[in-house]
Write a structure and sequence with these properties.
It is a single chain. The protein is mostly helical. The protein has one domain (about 15-150). Helix content is about 35%, strand content about 5%. The protein has helices at about 15-20, 35-55, 70-80, 110-115, 145-150, and strands at about 60-65, 90. The chain has a two-stranded parallel ribbon with strand order 1-2. Strand 1, helix 3 (about 70-80) and strand 2 form a beta-alpha-beta unit. Helix 2 (about 35-55) packs across helix 3. It is globular and about 40 Å long.
Length: about 150
């Protein structure tokens, strides 16, 4: 029996609002938005990803997104290139986040994300209220286990 192969694509959010204006060390904004240019960069990344998947005859099985606003906005615009009836699981996970260094790394509470991103139909309530502070010991898991558990949901 042939072994199934997997490919992992990773993307980082494009330009966020303060990065266009002030150096990151002077930021004061919490959970920043991406810029208009960042939205177009995300759309282009989606089109490029579709081309890559088509030419390599690969598909996406699972998409994990950080609950940071800029990551959700990036994914929203990136996925515009995909059909609405895509066949992959989308999961919001605080395993995908940044080191808490500046105010822009402070996230938004899950309830507010649910209101801001209703199109996602995702379970933000599965995320800790202050998820950006890192996992609690009783909820800590590694990314591989998280991905395997979520794949079982599809």
């Amino acid at each position: 029996m042939a072994k199934a192969s997997s490919t992992c694509f990773s993307t980082k959010h494009p330009l966020q609002t303060p990065n266009d204006i002030i150096p990151p060390t002077k930021m004061k904004k919490i959970d920043c938005d991406i810029t208009e240019r960042g939205k177009e960069q995300s759309r282009q990344a989606g089109r490029t990803l579709i081309e890559l998947l088509t030419s390599s005859q690969r598909k996406i099985d699972f998409l994990m997104i950080s609950p940071l606003r800029r990551a959700l906005q990036t994914a929203t615009h990136l996925l515009e290139a995909f059909p609405e009836n895509h066949n992959f699981v989308v999961e919001i996970s605080n395993l995908c986040t940044e080191i808490l260094l500046d105010s822009c790394d402070i996230g938004t509470e899950p309830r507010a994300l649910t209101e801001e991103f209703p199109q996602w139909d995702l379970k933000f309530e599965d995320i800790l209220v202050a998820w950006w502070l890192g996992p609690r010991n009783d909820l800590d898991t590694n990314a591989t286990e998280e991905v395997q558990r979520n794949r079982g949901r599809s």
